[in-house]
Amino acid sequence: MNLFNNREIATAIWLLVIFILMLFNMYLRKSILDVFKAFFKIEILSLIFFMIAYTAGIVFILYQINCWNISLLKDTVVWFCFTAIVVFVDSVTSEKDQNIFKNIIVKTIKVVLIYELVANTYTFSLVGELILVPLVSFIVILKIHTERDENNKSFVKLLNGVLLIIGIIIFYNFISNVVSDYNNFVSVDTLRKFLLPPLLTFLLSPFIYFVVLFSTYNQLFKQLNSNSGHKKTKKLKRYAKIKAIKHCFLNLKKVNSLKLIHIKNEEDVDNMIKYSRL
After folding, report:
1. Tell me: the pLDDT tens digits for 86-129?
2. What is the per-residue pLDDT across 15-74, written as a single tens digit (0 to 9) for each?
3. Mutual orientation of helices 266-274 and 234-248 as an angle, nearest 10°?
4. Co-location of 104 and 43 in the same domain
């Protein structure tokens, strides 16, 4: 069995081609450097480091209880790069009052059913994948761009129809290969690969929640430093932080319900917490 399937090879080839083309364009080259500069900020690097360490800890525990082995290394790396980071960034940048665990579960189910099981288990020839990968990517990007305008509804429906046809072709290819390769498909290795992404994502969700919680507390406490017409003393700031943490603790919705920008004294803090919505 090859380490990488044709779809992964085709994706890597196109990413390499795009990267090389970008290097020859001065504007795009500057954009790449800006991205790298933004990525290598200490805050982002710290989050990525802790996320890698947390994931490594999960994998080690799964290895110790015989739920992970070295044959799943590639699948784990692919999951981390294309699922974990995407879910993490989406959770951190989305509205903070969302149900994080629910959204993570929904996204994971979509990834597993659509990508891991159907789209990525059996692929086409390398030539076919070299055509399919950029075609689907272009249609998806075009759809995201055009659906922002209400006047493009007909065109968006057309793009959805094209994606549906491609999806049917991929699904037909999947079913055909399952029928002809049933013994290899129904195996312990396939089951492990199928269950690995949702299991890892589920185990990663507490880490994501605490990062979002910490970020939300940080944004809340920044309000204490804003100039709202009344300078807050260090004692008042400390009192407000302690009361907010005691009241909210690990409840993200409660943290989002508080506003500290207009407090002037300890009584304001007590009243704010007393009459908070949650």
Report:
1. 778 777 766 555 566 667 666 666 666 566 655 566 678 888 88
2. 888 778 777 776 666 666 666 666 566 667 788 889 999 999 999 999 999 889 888 888
3. 20
4. yes
| Residue 163 falls inside a structural domain | yes
In a domain, 216, yes or no: no
Model confidence at 257, pLDDT cuts 50, 70, 90, reads confident
Name the DSSP class of 120. T
Residues 50 and 152 in one domain: yes
- Calpha distance 271→278 (Å, rounded): 13
In a domain, 176, yes or no: yes
Residues 95 and 172 in one domain: yes
Q: State the residue range of the domain holding 230.
A: 226-274
Whether 163 and 232 share a structural domain: no
Tokens 């399919």: give the residue.
Answer: 132
Nearest CA to 187 among 71, 103, 73, 79? 71
Per-residue pLDDT, averaged over 194-201, amounts to 84
- Count of domains observed in the chain: 2
38 touches 162 (CB < 8 A) = no
Q: To the nearest 5 percent, what fractions of the chain are helix, strand and coil? A: 80, 0, 20
The number of C-alpha atoms within 13 Å of 124 and in the hemisphere containing its C-beta is 15
**Is 20 part of a structural domain of the chain?**
yes
